[in-house]
Specification:
heterodimer, A: 225 residues, alpha+beta, Alpha-Beta Plaits, three-stranded antiparallel β-sheet, 24% helix, B: alpha+beta, globular
Chain lengths: 225, 577
């Protein structure tokens, strides 16, 4: 039996609490207090994030879309060793190995596909890679018009300048090599009335964006046999 | 590893031997596992009665039934014939604070065991599950139907000779309603009563649960609950993955407190391996498990209060939860599916500002708890909805196999963190809140107090958070640091072996238990010495809670059933696995 046990008992209500109205007023006062505090707090952060104008600042361990890292000459660091595909609990990585024309590199992936609809974003592939070739970004806005689009091949996965641009997602989960793994992480974006102009400008920019492409027309149905 | 502290000699062993002779004999087990007695199937029912009623035994709580198909397990030929199926009954004595495993076997052809439902009612759904997934018939069981799979399912999925790729269409008609009509005490009442289908996608079921009620006006005269809508074959999938690869799946069991599942599983495997994890990892696991418990209770209370009409509390509770998620995300990289625990430690060290962040969160959580407390605890409407509804007495709670806050609200002070301390729980000072009423309000109060105690634990651990590594340096188990992998042959070989072959867990069996947010979360793992688990059986804490739901709500109002379902805190992810 536990050494220390506290017994919680239901409180008995006073007359004031039993006649409802003081309680209702106290409750209204509490919610009104929150309303005023949120309205007037110009520097403090509001709990609500006005997505997509505002975004949460994720830590640089965030496990988002994968990227394949490249060497200085632009070739993939990946040597097609199948470690990530083996470590993957969701079995979503498909690799075909080939012989590289450059003898120094020996082996490279001719096909490297990640089915992002199967992926559970656990980061085990990043942990398993012995060549520092697969990282994750902080990109979490992944939506597709068809299941086929969700299978990313080498062109989609290779790291692009836009991944680390100022308004890009930035690097997420990666092996910590030669640096302290303990880093500061994750703060909110400031909110409140002070950032209202910024939000309005972002809203205008989002509304100017071109509409997404129409999904490809389905192939014509085969005539019945 | 201080997972379990079993007494080496069973107090009731001499009496057991005198009464049953060779039919019930204690087995030698490793110290990390729970004590076990092997019982012949013919004597099982009598032994169960003895274990429940004898003053030297008094195993009053039925925890789990883990059935194992030993067809492909290395061992005597009897594993493939007369002793193919092993049924492991896990029992607990609240008086003497002892776990016990009762093991019995059933033959390969037509496996049959006597039911223990009349000894511990809590065995009811566990036996149904064992029949459904393993195909063991329990003679005398009142309602031996499929539970997690549907009626059109052919075969028993967890048998080792079941081919996993098969698909079965669900076409058979639902039989719940006709069963219900038979259950009402006076058949003439059927004309007066109305069948009400509640769920599986009712907003207050918080997931996919189904209850069919037979109502006389607003009063429920009979009910039957059904689960399995979220069954994802967790246990079958674990058998085809390495020990490390199971960790992301444990996050999806109780998705309100994923850290507890992950570290509980990792601890089970670590105690099989005999690996010690560093102090820092244990402290961090304790902190994050307590924060997860807080999140779970906040989801439970917040959602429950919405169901009974108090909307504001939902936001107060969920704000703290969102902030805790931010901390978790900074530690492991995802808000919900944390996958933070690894066998042998953690995936990464915590961020630099972990301690100050935790302190800030503790302050915020205290604040949010105070807000909810101020609006609800002395609110007459909430009291009217919660008090004297969904009452579970102490005897019922024990008989039905309750654990966790729901058992404590009925007056039994069983908490794994106190009774078998793991991680850092023996180094911190905290109280176990109990209540005696056993109604919804008691469960609400116990959860509120538990949140405050969790914050106390966090404060104490964070004040003493040690420095150092977060992973064991045993590279048979843990991936070596990247410096070694990139630069040294030896490191690369270790890395290769862990990824490709998995962790070689020695052959054996363990029942490891953790205090989950809803109660005792048990992992019963059988290893055959390879890198993949032979069998993983999870004891989901809310399984017995939902099994007895139909009994609790009988005689009450429909709206009370909603409040009761909320305070029991059924999480479909771990209920259905």
């Amino acid at each position: 039996m536990p050494a220390k046990v506290v017994t919680v008992t239901s409180p008995t209500l006073t007359f004031g609490q039993r006649i409802y109205f003081p309680g209702i007023l106290a409750g209204l006062a509490q919610t009104l207090g929150h309303f005023l505090k949120n309205l007037l707090s110009l520097t403090k952060t509001l709990p609500t994030i006005q997505y997509p104008e505002m975004r949460r600042n994720y830590s640089d361990r965030y496990r988002g879309r994968h990227i394949l890292k490249t060497r200085h000459d632009g070739t993939l660091k990946c040597v097609a060793c199948y470690m990530c595909a083996t470590a993957c609990p969701a079995d979503c990585i498909h690799i075909v190995a080939g012989e590289h024309p450059n003898l120094a590199y020996e082996k490279y992936p001719t096909t490297f596909e990640i089915d992002l609809l199967r992926c559970v974003m656990c980061g085990f592939c990043v942990d398993a890679c012995p060549k520092d070739a697969i990282w994750m970004t902080r990109d979490y806005e992944m939506s597709y018009f068809s299941r086929k689009d969700a299978i990313y091949g080498i062109p989609e996965l290779t790291e692009k300048p836009s991944d680390t641009a100022a308004d890009g997602p930035g690097y997420g989960y990666r092996p910590y090599y030669g640096e302290s793994p303990a880093r500061k992480a994750g703060e909110f974006e400031p909110s409140g009335l002070a950032v209202l102009p910024v939000m309005l400008a972002r809203n205008a920019a989002i509304n100017r964006m071109p509409p997404p492409p129409k999904p490809a027309a389905p192939p014509a149905a085969k005539p019945a046999a | 590893m201080s997972t379990t502290t079993p007494s080496p000699t069973l107090a009731f062993a001499p009496l057991l031997e005198r009464k049953f002779g060779e039919k019930a004999a204690p087995e030698a087990r490793p110290a990390a596992d729970v004590p076990t007695i092997a019982v012949d199937a013919s004597a099982l029912h009598d032994v169960a009665l003895f274990l429940r009623d004898d003053p030297s035994a008094r195993f009053d709580l039925f925890l789990d039934l883990a059935a194992v198909d030993r067809l492909k397990l290395a061992g005597p030929a009897s594993y493939r014939a007369g002793e193919r199926f092993a049924a492991n009954y896990l029992l607990y004595s609240t008086e003497r604070n002892e776990h016990l495993r009762v093991r019995t076997t059933a033959p390969a052809a037509d496996p049959k065991l006597p039911t223990l439902t009349d000894v511990w009612w809590g065995a009811n759904w566990f036996e149904r599950e064992a029949w459904d997934l393993m195909g063991i018939t329990f003679e005398g069981h009142p309602n031996l139907k499929r539970l997690l799979t549907h009626n059109g399912f052919v075969g028993h999925a967890l048998r080792k000779d079941y081919e996993a790729g098969q698909r079965w269409l669900c076409t058979e008609e639902d039989v719940l309603q006709t069963d219900l009509a038979a259950q009402t005490e006076t058949p003439e009442d059927v004309f007066e009563t109305l069948t009400l289908n509640f769920g599986p996608s009712h907003p207050s079921t918080h997931g996919t649960l189904r209850v069919v009620m037979r109502c006389d006006g607003e009063t429920i005269v009979a009910a039957e609950s059904e689960c399995g809508y979220l069954h994802r074959c967790f246990e079958k999938m674990s058998e085809t993955h390495t020990y490390q690869q199971v960790i992301p799946y444990t996050d999806r069991l109780n998705y309100c407190s994923p850290m507890i599942n992950g570290s509980g599983y990792a601890r089970a495997v670590e105690s099989m391996l005999g690996v010690e994890i560093p102090e820092r990892a244990r402290a961090v696991r304790t902190v994050l498990a307590e924060f997860s418990r807080l999140m779970d209770h906040m989801v439970c209370l917040g959602a429950n209060l919405v169901d009974i009409g108090a909307l504001t509390n939902f936001w107060y509770a969920f704000q703290a939860r969102e902030e805790i998620y931010s901390l978790l995300e900074a530690c492991c990289g995802a808000r919900l599916t944390s996958s933070y625990a690894r066998i042998g430690g953690l995936s990464n060290d915590v961020p630099e500002n972990f301690v100050e962040w935790c302190r800030r969160l503790v302050k915020l959580c205290h604040n949010q708890i105070r807000e909810v407390d101020g609006l609800i605890t002395k609110n007459r409407i909430a009291q009217k909805r919660f008090r004297d509804t969904g009452v579970v007495t102490k005897e019922q709670a024990l008989a039905w196999g309750f654990t966790g806050p729901c058992l404590r609200a009925s007056g039994v002070a069983y908490d794994v963190r106190k009774d078998a301390p793991y991680d850092w729980y023996d180094r911190v000072d905290f109280d176990v809140p109990i209540a005696t009423e056993g109604d919804n309000f008691a469960r609400y109060l116990v959860r509120m107090e538990e949140m405050r105690q969790s914050l106390r634990i966090v404060e104490q651990v964070v004040a003493k958070l040690p420095n150092g590594p977060v992973n064991s340096d045993d590279y048979r188990v843990v991936l070596p640091p990247k410096e070694m992998v990139y630069n040294e042959m030896e490191g690369l070989i270790y890395h290769f072996k862990v990824v490709f072959e998995g962790i070689p867990v020695p052959a054996g069996e363990i029942y490891s238990y953790t205090e989950g947010a809803n109660g005792e979360l048990g992992y019963h793992i059988v290893s055959d010495g390879t890198g993949r688990p032979y069998r993983v059986k999870v004891r989901p804490p809310c399984f017995p809670l939902f099994a007895s739901f139909e009994k609790i709500i009988r005689g009450g109002m429909v709206s009370d059933a909603v409040a009761t379902l909320g305070t029991l805190n059924i999480i479909a992810g771990e209920l259905d696995r």
